[in-house]
Amino acid sequence: METSVNFILPDHEEFYKWSLETDITKWALRFACDMITIVVTGERSYLMASYYNILSNKKVKNSNTAIEDPERFIQGIKNHLSGFTYFLYFSPFLHYHIPFIKDQVKATLKNWDYLFKIIDLIIEKRRKEIEEILVGDELRNDMLITLIVTNTVRDINRTNNGRDNISRPITDDKIRANLLDSFQDGIDTTANTFSFIVYYICKHHHVKKKIVDEIDSIFLSKTFFHLKYDDLLKLEYCDAIINENLNNKVRNKFSLLTFGGGLRICPGRRLAIIELLFLMVILFGKYEVELVDMNAPLKVKSKATTTCGELPIKIKLRK
Ligand code: HEM
User: For heme, which residues are the binding ones (predicted)?
Assistant: First the structure.
């Protein structure tokens, strides 16, 4: 079966004329959020399209989505990522009694209300769609649908072993928590990794050239909006760059420690690699890419996780 990945940016002539300075971290954050939203929930979030609207004179309309305000949604995800650390590091006593922490906790809870409302809407929408499909007919294959149908008559793996606690359908609040987990763990991580990759590639011209040559040898057309999964897997050099960036150790079963290991190994690691390859093709295949300041060090912020503050780059359409 042929699987293709459709880029979320509108396939618009205006886009090809782009020649500008942009913060690639912002770009990658929106891309990763679009990818997670579609892969995990089946919903489109149009974050890249809304970013395009900020940068371009031609505006793209987004319709039929539970996420009405894409920029607010991305801010909500970012606030969630910074806000949950107050629950990680500070006890409930401090939440109530230290003024600064109290304010942050209040804002985080308010933000949760906003995100929960959107996620609940998506779950409700998907439940309705499933109800309209006859039992036995094929359903789309995303994480949300799997969570909704688990232990229901539509679950092909259903086993009733008489133990109620593991044969009950999953409740909406648990489904919501699982979805939020994916947003929390899968967006910033991918966006930051991509920013680090771009930084190091731009620092080393011979590496950049090899990457562009490999992309050109596999993707003949300059319109990279409908990438085939199988073609992405042919990008051996790009894949090696990603792995090098993630971990300098010799490759073996346990070498990619960035994704953890054992039972709790990152379940999104395959998706992350595909996203990173995809971003490399889109960025380096289409544009000449340079750092705005070749001498500036990486703006790394280390809190609960290590992130890239911003990475200004210049992009110009390739001749
Ligand atoms: C470059 C990108 C990514 C990196 C570096 C990364 C890294 C990690 C690491 C180190 C862990 C902890 C593993 C352990 O405890 O041993 C983890 C867990 C997790 N990751 Fe990722 N991840 C990335 C992308 C993603 C994506 C795209 C998703 C999308 C679904 C995702 C979802 C998760 C989840 C749900 C967990 C928790 C698993 C559990 O607790 O059992 N991650 N990730």
Answer: 266
DSSP H/E element including 21: strand 19-23
Is 238 labeled as ligand-binding? no
Pocket flag, ligand 1, residue 163 (CB < 6 Å)? no
What is the Å distance from ligand 1's center to 319 Cα?
38
Whether ligand 1 lies within 6 angstroms of the CB of 247 is answered as: no
Structural tokens at position 317: 């359409």
By alpha-carbon position, which residue is closest to atom 40 of ligand 1? 264
For atom 13 of ligand 1, which residue has the closest CA?
260
Tens place of pLDDT per residue across the chain (319 aa): 455 555 545 555 555 566 678 899 988 999 899 989 988 999 988 888 787 777 777 777 766 788 888 889 999 999 998 898 899 889 999 999 999 999 999 999 999 999 999 999 999 999 999 999 998 888 888 899 999 999 988 887 776 665 655 678 999 999 999 999 999 999 999 999 999 999 999 999 999 999 999 999 998 765 556 678 888 999 999 999 998 877 654 444 444 567 888 888 999 999 999 999 989 998 898 889 999 999 999 898 887 778 888 999 998 888 7
pTM equals 0.89
Taking every pair of Cα atoms in the chain, the longest distance, rounded to a whole number of angstroms, is 65
Q: How far is the CA of 78 from the centre of ligand 1 (A)?
A: 17
Q: How far apart are CA 83 and CA 95, in angstroms?
A: 12
Q: Which amino acid is at 287?
A: Y
